[in-house]
Amino acid sequence: MSQVQPAERKPVILSGIQPSGELCLGNYLGALRRWVELQDDYDCIFMVVDLHAITVRQVPAELRKRCLSFAAQYIACGIDPKRSTIAIQSHVPQHAELTWVLSSLTSMGELGRMTQFKEKSRKAVSTDAAVPDVPAVEGGGASQQANAALFMYPVLMAADILLYQTVGVPVGDDQKQHLELARDLAQRFNHHYSETFVVPEPFIPQVGARIMSLQDPTKKMSKSDDNANNSIALLDPPDAIRRKIRRAVTDSETEIAYHPARPGLANLLTMYAVLEGKPVEQVVQAYSGRSYSDFKSDLAELAISVLEPIQQRYRELMQDRSHLDQVLADGARECRRRAQRTLSKVYRKLGLVEPAR
Questions:
Q1: Domain around 168
Q2: Does the CA dihedral 171-176-177-179 come out positive or negative?
Q3: Is 195 domain-assigned?
């Protein structure tokens, strides 16, 4: 059972995005825009989860640059540092410390059943995600080549969530399994050592939660896609946005209608509806009898108009590095304070000796 939050405090919401690839329209419509709405009613913590990103080999200079860029884009999209806490995950060492504790409560079988681990370990066979210079175990399959961090990824995610007594986590369908593990670990620790962690719940918006690839609408739009034409980056210039939407996959029909059997058009209609803040049915009605080219042209201009102020604010933030650094320093300080409060309680209940003060 979840602990009751004090009446004077807002319930805690936490979410984060890996600093890989380029933040895209799918991230904005499925996550960032929702985060902005949550700020009024919740105590929000939004992280750039760089420790999760190193399950795949990174170029150090590029990783540092992306971490700062992602933080600036959070703010540009409407995350207010005065109302929410923004931090880089590696700036809070308690995340790694609680991960080790939670790993003692997690079975290898649980982690081996994670769908994302299975998928990504297969991919690791031919990428730098595999352990460098270590041959695969004969007959062991792809999982024998994947690095241990990839295997432990869900435990780190659980630590991210549980450190802050998080009530809700805005997640997509692909992360629900990881959140379920966090819930199990919270309940497991509470059972063995007494009530300590809030048991978190998922926040999954019903509209716009899953924006699909422009070229393959059976797959989710990804910021890390190798094909840049599959997604619209938040920082794409107008001409690139027009070109990508003009080339987006639809079908051979002529009538604009929303139907799951027509995933390309359905995806574009969903994008339009969420950007405009209207039901899909109204968008379909507005384009009744009109051509695909008219619809795509209007969708491109709508996307450009939504992204233009975000891009302008982003440029201002990146030109004022001292302000961005201060936001991240303040966020890390607040996260460390809150995380240490939880970790000290955990260590005490485990029977570990508290350091002398």
A1: 12-209+321-350
A2: positive
A3: yes
